[in-house]
Design goal:
- The protein is an alpha/beta fold and about 230 residues long.
- The protein contains 8 helices and 10 strands.
- Strands 6-7-8-3-9-10 form a 6-stranded mixed beta sheet, sandwiched between helices. The chain has a 4-stranded antiparallel beta sheet with strand order 2-1-4-5, covered by helices on one side.
- It is globular, with a radius of gyration of 18 Å.
- The relative contact order is 0.20.
- The model has no long low-confidence stretch (mean pLDDT about 95).
- It binds adenosine-5'-diphosphate (2 copies).
- One adenosine-5'-diphosphate binds next to loops.
- One adenosine-5'-diphosphate (ADP) binds next to loops.
- GO terms for molecular function: ATP binding; ATP hydrolysis activity.
- This is Cell division ATP-binding protein FtsE.
- Belongs to the ABC transporter superfamily.
Amino acid sequence: MIELKNISKTFRSSKKKTIALNQVSLKINQGKIFGIIGKSGAGKSTLIRCVNLLERPDEGEVWVDNVNLLDLSEAKLTLERRKIGMIFQHFNLLSSRTVEDNIALPLELIGTSKREIKSRVDELLHLVGIGDKAKEYPANLSGGQKQRVAIARALASNPTLLLCDEATSALDPATTKSILNLLKEINQKLNLTILLITHEMEVINRICDEVGVIDDGILVEHGSVEDVFTNP
Ligand code: ADP
Ligand code: ADP
């Protein structure tokens, strides 16, 4: 289970102070897909980055499987972070590496044996449906194929949580649909919890179990998609 408690984050520069997150709390049960929707500048990206501590909240608690990440030493945090995968709008693949070597990267970093990497990468390539692209470079792939590689890379260390930062915003409608279907399939197959941010209602409607609406750093509503978006 994932639980955020009273997360706040303020950005300060010499000229101004921006309250990006103001006491945000939410809970996500294992295996659920939770979508955060809000306008540009609402705080979505800061929120999702606070979950894996790419951004450090000023206050609050980030509980992942009964551990508050903010309590951990750097060494322990590195271990806990393996439980959290992330994908991005612009895929963030390494252009100098082939598809299989991009997917292998997180496993290389934790010292997995070559043999084990090979079998794990094969398994992941098939899971995301690009078994024939192993030796390609990212430049030769479509947007949807690149996102499939990124999903495989994010799943390499067998995370319990997948963070998706506007994962379909750079894709055309048909490709968006196929990537959302893939995320749902993986969610069900692996009982993987997914936290995503989006500015598109379609993403919420198509795959999310629960939704949070963020406005000006405040989580103004959250609940099941039906409860939040069906008017009485
Ligand atoms: P969203 O993802 O919903 O577009 P963000 O989380 O990126 O929103 O931004 C929320 C607010 O925090 C915005 O006003 C943004 O300008 C500000 N902000 C985000 N990151 C930084 C930063 N590193 N430095 C200063 N201000 C920031
Ligand atoms: P960049 O600024 O290009 O993202 P980084 O050093 O942050 O550079 O990342 C190096 C590589 O690792 C990039 O391909 C990036 O997409 C990937 N990466 C960064 N953060 C994460 C994360 N939390 N989960 C998975 N991959 C990540």
